[in-house]
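Re: the multi-chain job from yesterday

Posting the exact lines I submitted so nobody has to dig through the queue logs.
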Amino acid sequence: MRSAVTGRNDDLAWLFDPPPAGGGLERQIYRRIRSAVLERRLRPGTRLPASRRLAVDLGVSRGTVVAAYDQLIAEGYLEACTGRGTAVTALPDAMLGAPDAATAESTTAPASSTRAASFRMPAIGGGLDASCFPPGVPSLDTFPKREWSRCLAARARRLRAADMTYDNAAGLPILRETLIGHLNPARGVVAEPDQVIIVPSAQAAFDAAAICTTEPGDLIAVEDPGYPHAREVLAAAGGVLAPVPVDADGIEVAALTRLKRFRLVAVTPSHQYPTGVTMSLERRLRLLDLARERGAFILEDDYDSEFRYAERPIASLQGIDGGRTVIYVGTFSKSLAPGIRVAYLIAPPSLATTLARIVVGKGQVVAGVVQAALADFIAEGYLAAHIGRMRAIYAAKRDALVEALRANLPSEIRVEPPRGGLQLLLRLPDRTDDKAIVHELAAAGIEARALSRQSLRATGRGLLLGYAIAPLDAIAPAAKQLAAIVSRHLDG
Amino acid sequence: MRSAVTGRNDDLAWLFDPPPAGGGLERQIYRRIRSAVLERRLRPGTRLPASRRLAVDLGVSRGTVVAAYDQLIAEGYLEACTGRGTAVTALPDAMLGAPDAATAESTTAPASSTRAASFRMPAIGGGLDASCFPPGVPSLDTFPKREWSRCLAARARRLRAADMTYDNAAGLPILRETLIGHLNPARGVVAEPDQVIIVPSAQAAFDAAAICTTEPGDLIAVEDPGYPHAREVLAAAGGVLAPVPVDADGIEVAALTRLKRFRLVAVTPSHQYPTGVTMSLERRLRLLDLARERGAFILEDDYDSEFRYAERPIASLQGIDGGRTVIYVGTFSKSLAPGIRVAYLIAPPSLATTLARIVVGKGQVVAGVVQAALADFIAEGYLAAHIGRMRAIYAAKRDALVEALRANLPSEIRVEPPRGGLQLLLRLPDRTDDKAIVHELAAAGIEARALSRQSLRATGRGLLLGYAIAPLDAIAPAAKQLAAIVSRHLDG
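And the result, structure tokens for all chains:
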């Protein structure tokens, strides 16, 4: 009823009906008015009640109303007119759009990009459920929880303010050094600490490597069949993927030689994904020669080479090369656990600075406290002990799977025990529809991946079976069930 | 001298001279032979001493030699010929290249890509040194070390095996929920937990947003002047950057309207980088309207909006829009500390699933234990308390800088105190060479950034000065020194 309010005070009664109650009164008043302005329920020029008056009406302190008004003035919703109180800003009417513009779903949301749709791979693995047979997931019930927890908690307690800066964004010196100390004997990797770059995942490493060595539209050679998550990232980085066949000795270098220009070739020499083949020495040397000749780089994805059951793991390409042509990528997702969220690049000296800049510029960074804890974990010998222990456990699981498959599959199907890694490729005749089998297996609660899904042009059929996460005694029954489904498909 | 060895046994004496000693004997034997094969010092076909004989010669156990041989056989360097001992594999001679091929620097290392060179920004800030005046670095000596350390150590101790899986790679549910609880009142953000995506950095968020909404070659509108680290990432994602001028109300929407097609526009509405301008409500509404009309998305970088000294921080664009058109990006690098290595996206509902897939597919992931600790830290009220405390400290530092600059600069230079954030833009006349001043300041131990370096086409000159990390009592003397250098340039 005061002159400060347009028309009668009752005109704005709706604004505070029901009256704000409970906590955050200032915020509630602010929100009511803001929504009303945006939705044109409060028209430009409308005067608001004097703060004193509104405070009395709402039974709140005057300061609360003043604070809400001040905020609305600061944000441009209201204007303070000296001597004339507070009014709704005269915003161009058209801008406010339809009533309820702020919440209506009237306009259609624009679509995401075409390339966004290329990220369609399901996440790896099925979490903690110790199921049969998701590939790529290590055993989790054997994770050295106590040791990792202790290393992490110790570093968390000893946190220094220096750990909180932007410094060392490409990797903590202590982890870089410790990693080389581990990788040199274990993987034959030869590098100085400043060649080591720490990232949150192998995919982040692939992305940085592609950005570093290729222009958009350049050919990136990939193994076919190969690792779909790597293909996704390399293509998203602008690479045109050139599939190169894989035989019993690894990537067919003769086929690669026929590619006119390639700037990067991504390989899994220690344990080809998904075939499980180890690249022969001859092939390794030919590949290194070809890359040098062409001025191309090799991306060596050494994802699960730690687990080799017969002999010691095959030394890395990086070590043979002396690290000039090879960008080496390793991860703790398989050797330790995916939840660690740490992977690493070993860059050739010529690329180390550039790769580090790309990683930092793209913000592919890892909290220092996690890196420091991991360095301690490795230095204490926990990683080596865990790998040694898991090698025996995984070998037993592999044997159980091989035995059960051999016992239950028709003799037409050859079951070849992998020499390393966490999965077995069960090759099936070309007439088989491996996707349909995977579908049927899923209905029976068994995870597997179809070989044809790992391929761009390769025509082989098969099932990729991970034996790492399943409990040992669950493997034989699940394999028997799987064999029954596969057999039915072979007959049908 | 045995028949198993080609020629005389002495022929291979060089291989073990000096004899392997100390630990890791098996590894040493392996390495000596491998290098010799790769460097052609051991020719194909050469027979190696029988393992028993070599063991005696070297004074090691026979098992050690056998293990080394087995490994070399597995890797393809040696061949076991039944009844004829062990010989160097007949690898094609050409493949082994020049002697010392494995270590020689004879061939030139191929170069990195052109786009790699676009990542040339120096890392932000200068570490822990409490220097004057690096922009973008928060105060680190006031970091709530004890509270963060406690939250992190507690989560590290309570580690569950479930935290170690590939699950929740796009964000831990507890952090997603806690963040909304914090952002809704603090920033007016309106979202459901599944719209929140956790990434290691704001740059990772920009990258995912660009991949999600644009095709390579699409126009991405950016503020000019603007944030170079964002430009770097958006360009690396294939965007063609279209600079749009900024005036006292923020990005000039009229100029943006003249762009034919843009799919994404990146803005800093709360506190424009680097000018410090707050986008007016009218401009916000116009920008939202234009984006909706064009079917484009807005990337709202809300990097330091928590620190607003006069009134409450301006509510986010995301909240005005109801979250349909805006991809909101926030970070803990300014509000807490860069070393946390956590940032987040709030996606429109229409993009949430796709953006999460991109983030997981590109491996832009954060360790669950850090996320959980951060959720606890926020829920305990430590974040809000820290921000409240820092607001007062930063306001005092800002005032000290403004006062000292005003007292020591010629009246021609207007010093405008920023209403928020961690830096002040000191505008200089167009005739000034701001890069030269920055250079001279660096020589005097003072960090600053030239406005012209933050610009693509914009022509303004000035110095961007961060006042957050410097101790309060260091600000006035450094500002005085800075003013002297600037004054000299104005006169010269």
